[in-house]
Design brief:
heterodimer; A: 270 residues; alpha/beta; 13-stranded mixed β-sheet; two-stranded parallel sheet; 5 helices; B: 302 residues; alpha+beta; Alpha-Beta Plaits; 2 domains; 14-stranded mixed β-sheet; two-stranded antiparallel sheet; 18 strands; elongated
Chain lengths: 270, 302
């Protein structure tokens, strides 16, 4: 299924109806009539996109916008490809399938992700995978790969799953993590692992300053690092390379439970 | 029993009678092959027969580094028992005492499937609260801090109810040396076959047993019909020329794996001929009423 953007939207648009399972079984005319939630004037799919019927399990949206919210929201299988930018909440509450964003994604991408695979070719804004106000936990499963950088608090309240940021991350990466794994291949901003309870935060270099509530642990040749490297290899060789040698570890955040870890290559701290 | 001849070796027209068992497979890795093997040997020790050991276990295969989850050398071991609860007990006890304790090891599921046994899920408590749970690619691992670093152990391992225990070959030779040679050749062939083990010492049992005994307390006793030293004194199954008998017992994850192993073992033993190896090859059964699986030697001929 192919949606080609006619012109850039002049208001925010909710693209959550454009997932394989929500389009499944619909005829072209029915798809063109789907009303898209907006902020001002009503809008149907046909107003915004030229639609071509192809494999219903694969949805391609040609042309993005930072005003496109909820892309791939709640998708459970199949594939959504957004060739362009995404707005808020891309991939929110996904349980399966694959969402690929060929541009940048706005705040709360992968928010509450439960499963599946989300790849962002550009940058992700703040609170990647994080919970919305009032939610107790953020992402609870699945894999997120960001080829660029991420804004503040990526992996906030992460409960399960894997987030890889190949570029730099903003302040408080892995803040309030409950469990799961966050990897930052570039530079991490201030106080990574801020108030993390459990989970693994992999960094490329020793944070400066080291968060004061983390304590140095023994590291060495960790079998877990090898397992993680193998799991990462198909998705992000760059992240896998971080984990191939001897590792150094810090436990924290001791201001809370203190059962989390910051892990980094030993050479990086020398 | 009509004799079948292969390479001058007489092969009895009989069958091996085998039983349904529960089984699992584990993959043990370590810093090098020596230590992976050590852990595998230790955890499969004293596991020759469920009669006296509660479970039967053995090494199935070397696993190359590119086929293990952590990229280190690995050994795959198989464990068999009569019931799921018995198998669970022995998996937990053996991994806990023999793999967890062995320097540098990690332990993973060696078998998939919907039904599972607890592995790390049972052993994690050794971490006394410092154990860490990690999920990667849909698999669940426990990291348990130990004195040489961390013991990484998968949460569960698969359980199969299709397993078969008690496939066997009985090798009969004109001298002890020739019979042992035939048995060694057969075991080497069986070791190369996947998904099956020969749980006895070096794969070979010299004390084949029959069900029951003149002593009420014993469930099994010496198979007098196959003891060359009793030939003449009892209703013997042997010919006068047979000086030594050895048995190879085979457990497999599937009936097909047992059949393939028996076929490989039979071919390897028969290839030695009656002078260098066994002059006669048979199989053990209980009349066919006890075990559901019958492996006819006629169907497994080289």
């Amino acid at each position: 299924m192919r949606f080609t953007l006619r012109r850039a939207p002049d208001q925010r648009v909710d693209l959550s109806p454009l997932t394989p399972q929500r389009l499944n079984g619909l005829a072209l005319s029915a798809i063109e009539c789907i009303a898209l939630a907006t902020t001002r004037a009503p809008l149907s799919v046909a107003d915004l996109f030229r639609v071509r019927m192809r494999d219903p399990a694969r949805v391609a949206i040609e042309g993005g916008s930072p005003r496109f919210d909820n892309v791939g929201e709640g998708m459970s299988d199949g594939e959504v490809l957004l060739d362009g930018e995404a707005g808020l909440y891309a991939g929110r509450l996904m349980t399966g399938g694959r969402l690929e964003i060929r541009g940048n994604a706005g705040p709360w991408a992968a928010s509450g992700l439960r499963g599946g695979f989300l790849e962002i070719a550009g940058n992700a804004a703040e609170r990647l995978g994080g919970p919305l106000a009032g939610e107790r936990a953020g992402m609870a499963g699945g894999t997120v790969i960001v080829r660029g950088g991420a804004g503040e608090r990526p992996g906030d309240r992460l409960r399960r799953g894997l987030i890889v940021i190949e570029g730099d991350a903003g302040a408080h990466a892995g803040s309030r993590m409950i469990a799961g794994t966050v990897i930052v291949c570039g530079e991490a901003g201030r106080l990574p692992g801020y108030l993390m309870r459990r989970g693994t935060l992999v960094l490329a270099a020793l944070p400066d300053p080291l968060p004061p509530t983390f304590v140095a642990l023994g590291g060495g040749d960790l079998v877990f690092a090898r397992l993680l490297a193998r799991a990462l290899e198909p998705h992000s060789p760059r992240a896998a390379r971080l984990l191939t040698g001897r590792m150094q570890r810090f436990a924290g955040d001791m201001a809370v439970l203190g059962k989390g870890e910051i892990m980094l290559p030993r050479a990086a701290s020398a | 029993m009509r004799p079948l001849i292969r390479n001058g070796v007489r092969i009895d027209d009989t069958f091996a009678e085998a039983f349904d068992m529960r089984a699992t497979a584990l993959l043990i890795t370590a810093v090098n092959r020596r230590w992976a093997r050590q852990a595998a040997l230790t955890m499969t020790g004293f596991a020759t027969s469920i009669i006296g050991c509660g479970c039967e276990a053995g090494i199935d295969a070397n696993v190359p580094t590119d086929a293990t989850p952590d990229g280190r050398p690995g050994m795959r071991v198989l464990l068999f028992a009569g019931s799921t609860s018995e198998l669970q007990k022995h998996v937990q006890g053996r991994v806990g005492q023999c793999v967890l304790t062995c320097p540098g090891t990690a332990c993973y599921a060696g078998l998939g499937g919907a039904e599972t046994l607890k592995l790390g899920d049972a052993l994690r408590y050794f971490g006394d609260g410092w154990q860490i749970s990690k999920r990667l690619d849909g698999r669940h691992y426990w990291r348990i801090p130990v004195m040489d670093g961390e013991f990484v152990c998968e949460g569960t391992t698969g359980l199969t109810k299709q397993a078969v225990g008690g496939g066997n070959l009985i090798l009969m030779g004109r001298s002890a040396a020739a019979t042992l040679r035939a048995a060694e050749a057969a075991v080497a062939a069986i070791e190369a076959a996947p998904d099956a083990i020969a749980p006895f010492p070096g794969g070979i049992a010299r004390s084949g047993s029959k069900v029951g005994s003149k002593y009420k307390a014993l469930r099994a006793s010496t198979n007098h019909a196959y003891c060359p030293t009793l030939h003449g004194a009892v209703d013997s199954a042997l010919d006068p020329e047979i000086a030594s008998v050895l048995e190879i017992v085979i457990d497999g994850l599937t009936p097909e794996a047992v059949a393939a192993s028996m076929r490989a073992g039979l071919a390897a033993a028969a290839a030695l001929g009656p002078e260098q190896g066994a002059a006669r090859i048979g199989a053990g059964n209980y009349g066919g009423k006890l075990g559901r699986h019958h492996f006819r030697l006629r169907d497994l001929l080289p």
